[in-house]
Design brief:
The structure is a single chain. This protein has helices at 6-21, 28-38, 44-47, 50-53, 67-83, 89-100, 103-124, 130-138. With 139 residues, it is mostly helical. It starts with 5 loop residues before the first helix and ends with a helix. It is 68% helix and 0% strand.
């Protein structure tokens, strides 16, 4: 779905945002990206400065969240919900939504578990473990 090259991936975000700003027709993925970007006004400046941001590194030492990673995680969670994969994700999402009340905040909470699962898989050089992810969400 997404290219492996960081600059190409980011370009998709920049293009979707510009189409949104210019009220141009968009593909469904671009509409999703624009909707997520709209929910993050703190990223609008980043998306409006392609030349400065295209190859920018975001490291933990900088104390900033990588806006592209953050938005991509929103997309991942929305795709999980849309495809109902992993099994049980809808029920856990609905449970969290009943407790938290804000769908956007629920996704932010879910990102913690998603990020942990991905980090563990990379650290252990294994495939991401759905059960680890779901267990984290249950907690």
């Amino acid at each position: 779905m997404f290219p492996q090259d960081r600059s190409q991936l980011r370009q998709i975000f920049f293009d979707a945002w510009q189409k949104h700003i210019n009220k141009q027709a968009m593909e469904p993925l671009e509409q999703l990206i624009a909707a997520i970007a709209e929910q993050h006004p703190e990223y609008h400046d980043t998306l409006n400065h392609r030349d400065e941001q295209l190859d920018k590194d975001y490291t933990p030492e900088m104390g900033q969240t990588n806006p592209f990673l953050h938005m991509a995680m929103h997309i991942s969670i929305q795709e999980q919900l849309g495809t109902q994969r992993p099994t049980g994700i809808i029920e856990l999402y609905q449970s969290l939504l009943a407790k938290i009340g804000d769908p956007h905040e629920v996704e932010h909470q879910m990102m913690e578990c998603l990020g942990q699962m991905i980090w563990e898989a990379q650290r252990n050089n294994t495939m991401p473990n759905d059960e680890t992810y779901l267990d984290c969400l249950r907690k």
